[in-house]
Design a protein that fits this description.
This protein has 259 residues and is mostly helical. The chain has 9 helices and no strands. It has 2 domains: 96 residues, no CATH class; 163 residues, no CATH class. It is a multi-pass membrane protein. Its EC number is 2.1.1.-, 3.4.23.43.
Length: 259
């Protein structure tokens, strides 16, 4: 069942990725993601359904509007492909399981949040806050299906712990971390905690590790200074997704090394 699950998840990722392009463009501007329909920014012509097929339409049109030939950014098909790959990897890790929808949801939320944070240095409440009830509901469904109600309690504790940690850091060093990061930490803690304490610890640690590595790389390249504001959301999300894929294994390896 693994191959069909991975293939179906990849296809779903392509479709979701097409919608996420709209989310990334409109949410920071406070616009509706459902109305009006997508249109060319050059001639304002509505994009037909046959020109809105993920990746394929961009390739057929050679990255240009059919009507006015205005260029269409390569970011659009890359987001679609990236989301498809992310969904496929998550499906490969979890298989056709009760928890798969919850972690596909996490992957789907991660893509626009990371891109928006890179674009405008903000993690919009319009995405982060609804993620709490949706994540809780999907994880509750996973616990109902597996009978692992302890995992749901651990998810709640993980969300509170990671939220509290980031809140403490934000209060201790004002300006060093945005409150958007704090709110996102609670969502990530839910998902990491459901999988296990080891996954929670590894996911939290990897976020800081990746964030530090990105900061050092930017400073080494002369693109940032010690006081430069660097978006931390992408590192948090990348660390959490890496932990979903291999968090318990990394935690076990660390314990083995200590012992």
């Amino acid at each position: 069942m693994l191959a069909p699950t991975v293939a179906a998840s990849a296809l779903l990722g392509l479709l979701v990725g097409s919608f996420l392009n709209v989310v990334v463009h409109r949410v920071p501007a406070g616009l509706s993601v459902v109305h009006p329909p997508s249109a060319c920014p050059g001639c304002d012509a509505r994009i037909a359904a046959y020109d809105n097929v993920p990746v394929l339409s961009w390739l057929v049109l050679r990255g240009r509007c059919r009507r006015c030939r205005t260029g269409i950014s390569v970011r659009y098909p890359l987001v679609e492909l990236g989301t498809a790959c992310l969904f496929a990897v998550v499906a490969w890790r979890l298989g056709a399981s009760w928890e798969l929808p919850a972690y596909l949801w996490l992957a789907g939320v991660a893509v626009p949040l990371a891109l928006i944070d890179l674009d405008v240095r903000r993690l919009p409440d319009a995405i982060v806050l609804p993620a709490y009830p949706v994540s809780a509901a999907l994880l509750a469904l996973a616990s109902e299906g597996t009978g692992e109600w302890g995992a749901l309690l651990r998810a709640g504790a993980g969300g509170l712990l990671l939220f509290a940690l980031y809140l403490l850091l934000a209060v201790a060093q004002p300006g060093g971390m945005g409150f958007g990061d704090v709110k996102l930490a609670g969502v990530l803690g839910l998902h990491l905690g459901w999988l296990g304490w080891g996954t929670l610890v590894v996911g939290g640690f990897l976020g800081f590790l990746l964030g530090g590595a990105v900061g050092l790389a930017l400073m080494a390249a002369g693109r940032a200074g010690r006081r430069s504001a660097i978006p931390f959301g992408p590192s948090m999300l990348a660390g959490a997704l890496l932990a979903v894929l291999c968090g318990e294994a990394l935690a076990g390896l660390y314990v083995d090394l200590l012992l």
